[in-house]
Amino acid sequence: MLVTSKEILLAAQKGGYAIGAFNAENMEMVMAIVAAAVEAKSPAIIQTTPSTLKYAEPAMYSAMVRCCAEAASVPIVMHLDHGNSHDLAVRSLEAGYTSVMIDGSPLPFDENVALTRKVVECARPLGIPVEAELGKVGGKEDDMTASNACTVPAEAAEFARLTGIDSLAVAIGTAHGVYKVEPRLDVPRLREIRKVVDIPLVLHGASGLSDNAVRECITEGICKVNFATELRMAYTEGVRSFLNEDAKAFDPKKYGAVGMERVKQLVLAKIRVCGSANHA
Q1: Would you kindly state where each structural domain of the chain is located, as residue ranges?
Q2: Which of 203, 227, 229, 261 is the most exposed place for a label (fewest CB within 10 A)?
Q3: For 20, what's the count of Cα atoms within 13 Å in the CB-facing half-sphere?
Q4: What is the pLDDT of residues 157-179, one digit of tens each?
Q5: Distance between CA atoms of 254 and 100, rounded to whole angstroms?
Q6: What is the pLDDT of residues 127-141, one digit of tens each?
């Protein structure tokens, strides 16, 4: 079933677990994520980034996710990840996305507030929740490269109050992309943010973090954990392994199935880490 992110994140917050949010680049990845969620009896969030939505329109991804979600026995969310403009957020809403993120974190505080409020004002009449980001999660996300700037707890509380958002992505030392060394997370900072912000908190840049690090963040209040890079790598490694074994292979369905299975197994593992199995 296709649902919004609001109810499942509030349930996760109350239950002390997190929902895995998985970036999908194609039909096979969408199918793999939903299959894993069904097998684990877990809610799941499927996400697309701005660069993915340059590859194909929001309506294309929305249709694929809706098709799979409507046949599934678990809640599935279609989410815009790191929306980089009001226009893209609106296009995603019009395409049937059931959750959107507007990322104004590169902007000064007041401009981030203004952009975020503008998206909230569009999404709220539709009943669609909005995620935003304060502070900067470092590394490379799509076409953006950023250095870390950790979220200030007092600013986070004010930002949530001024914007009316439904969830907040926080910067506590994680980064997008592939880690060369595992980061040192500022868990005390997360703990302080949790004390002053009552909406669900989101952890970006989880690909490559240890399972224990992710679990510790969930214990301290994270309700949504984003995974992207690892899924892309798993799919590509599956396809590559098939083609390396059979250089004459030409049927995309055959190597696509191998990539899909690699993604499914990875998503199952991440669901276990998040603790959301059997919470559908």
Answers
A1: 5-274
A2: 261
A3: 35
A4: 999 999 999 999 999 988 755 65
A5: 33
A6: 999 999 998 775 544
Residue 117 has, within 13 A of its CA and on its CB side, a CA count of 12
What tokens appear for 212 in the block? 């224990």
Catalytic entry in 81, 103, 166, 186: 81
| CATH architecture, domain 5-274 | Alpha-Beta Barrel (3.20)
For 247, list phi and psi in degrees, rounded to 5.
-65, -15
- Asked if residue 119 lies in contact with residue 136, where contact means CB atoms within 8 angstroms, the answer is no
pLDDT tens for 105-119 read 999 999 999 999 999
Residue 20 pairs with which residues in a beta bridge? 225
State yes or no: is 81 an active-site residue: yes
Looking at residue 275, the DSSP 8-state letter turns out to be T
SS3 82: strand
- Name which residue leads in pLDDT, 173 or 147: 173
